[in-house]
Input
Amino acid sequence: MKAKQLKTLKNLKLSLKDESEAVKFYPKAAAIARKGKVKKAAKFFMKVVKDERKHKDRIQKLLKKLG
Output
């Protein structure tokens, strides 16, 4: 595997780690917002969770495909 490809795989793995952390973080942020009765913020955070899950899934598929 070429150095450029290895760098791409490394970057994808780092991105996957970040997306995974975001998927865990934002539901907690939404819960805090709901507890504080800030419904718009809670709704926003839950939308972010959906987006982050999509990103995570796409990165996982890419990593699987690239080996």
User: Anything to note?
Assistant: The mean pLDDT is 95. Residues 40-67 form one domain. The helical segments are 3-35, 39-66.
